[in-house]
């Protein structure tokens, strides 16, 4: 007995997401965070981008586990410990924004 094949369902185009206003509001970094990313106010998304640029430029990602960040002297002032996960990093950075 032959079964009829169904045509694959057409995928709907994903709706454009609008950024949350809270993420786009410029935040002022603390003096310790400003040493890493600069002192001008910027949105949280931009702060995270700048921190990642700093981490990659200074090769601070752990070689065996890329999800871990090894803190140098500047980042140790922000993180308060020698190594943090990338998920914990964003939480610790938000404490340095106002």
Task: Report on this structure.
The chain has a single domain, classed as MDM2 (Orthogonal Bundle), CATH 1.10.245. The protein starts with 20 loop residues before the first helix and ends with a helix. Helix 2 (31-37) packs across helix 4 (73-79). The chain has five helices and two strands, in the order αααβαβα. It is mainly α and 98 residues long. 42% of the residues lie in helices and 6% in strands. This is SWIB/MDM2 domain-containing protein.
Topology record:
Layout: H1 21-24, H2 31-37, H3 44-57, E1 68-70, H4 73-79, E2 83-85, H5 86-94
Antiparallel strand pairs: 1-2
Brief synopsis:
The chain is mainly α and 98 residues long. 42% of the residues lie in helices and 6% in strands. It is built from 5 helices and 2 strands; from the N terminus they run H-H-H-E-H-E-H.
Biggest β-sheet: count, sense, barrel? Answer: 2 strands, antiparallel
- End-to-end Cα distance, whole Å, is 69 Å
Q: Tell me the CATH superfamily.
A: SWIB/MDM2 domain
What name is given to the CATH topology?
MDM2
The CATH architecture name reads: Orthogonal Bundle
Q: N-to-C SSE series?
A: HHHEHEH
Q: Any idea what the shape is?
A: flat
Low-confidence stretches: none
Biased composition (Low complexity): 1-22
Domain DM2: 22-98
InterPro entries: SWIB_domain, SWIB_MDM2_dom_sf, SWIB_MDM2_domain
Pfam families: SWIB
